[in-house]
Amino acid sequence: MSLAGTVAIVTGSGQGLGLAYAQELAAKGASVVINDVSQETADAAVRSIVDAGGTASAVVAPVGPTATAKALVDHAYDTYGRLDALVTNAGILRDRTLWKMSDEDFDAVIDVHLRGTFTCVREAATRMREGGTPGHIVCIGSPTGQRGNFGQTNYAAAKAGIVGMVRTWAMELKKANITVNAVIPVAATAMTKTVPFFQKAVEADERGEPMPAFFRHDLGFGTSDDVAGIVAFLASNAANGVTGQAIGAGGDRLQLWSHPEPVATAYREGGWSYDSLVEGFAGAVGDLQSVGETFPQLPDELAPEPR
């Protein structure tokens, strides 16, 4: 099934992962609304799609405010007459440890990632429901939102919140035939290129060479194009039966993330008092859950070079 005749909005699509999503959607036949905060970047993204034979136009505005969400959806309907898919990708980073993170650092990331996802999905879903048309919403999450990451309080909170909203919206929009899913990408981007662990993979990608198989297979770490396929799939009618899911993609790997479930359950007549927990907590819950992501050791030839 192609996306011919459909219309999709991709927020934060001037470059990086967002641009790869937009280009893939356009290559499959969708007319795409590009979004970025830079007119120059947005125009270049549109040209890349048009020069490849696709259809695209741009709305230059920061994601977060309701006004931007309305402008994006209005543009889709005014320019192309419909809206079939929304991909919420826009995001920023303000990494700091907890004790160094300012209110401004926290609020900026929450506003773009979490509020921006909310306002854009609310506007798109409202218009789709009013028109009685089915649709597909794809919200971009992160492994950080699933597992946590040092120095990313704001980003982890936003990305975890996005997955929580996706599960809620999947239930609320089911009767309207609107699917809602989250994609958890792992790819070489401006956000990952500074991580020493991925140095050899990023350098290979920048040289236009294939990434070493260890990164692509063992770590599920690849290029932006490796993630674009699942985004286009979830934005199409081929995925009509898929909703409320968090799906990881990167390199050669595809993953279905579980919904949080209890991993240990214990009962005690009369409940669990402080004293009973001191005595029996470890035996009641067993092994504790890990925190953060863990990676296998890099082969010597792929270890980062000292800087």
Coarse structural class: alpha/beta
Order of helices and strands: EHEHEHEHEHHEHHHEEH
The percent range for helix content is 40-55%
Counted by DSSP, the helix tally is: 10
Radius of gyration: 21 Å
Q: What's the domain count?
A: 1
Which fold does the CATH topology refer to?
Rossmann fold
Summarize, please.
The protein is an alpha/beta fold. The protein has helices spanning 16-27, 39-51, 66-80, 103-131, 143-147, 153-172, 199-206, 213-218, 224-234, 274-285; strands spanning 7-10, 31-36, 55-60, 85-88, 135-140, 178-185, 246-250, 253-257.
Describe this structure in words.
By secondary structure, the chain is an alpha/beta fold. It has a single domain, classed as NAD(P)-binding Rossmann-like Domain (Rossmann fold, 3-Layer(aba) Sandwich), CATH 3.40.50. It has ten helices and eight strands. The chain has an eight-stranded mixed sheet, sandwiched between helices. Helix 1 crosses helix 9, helix 3 packs parallel to helix 4 and helix 4 runs parallel beside helix 6. The longest helix is centred in the middle third of the chain and has 29 residues.
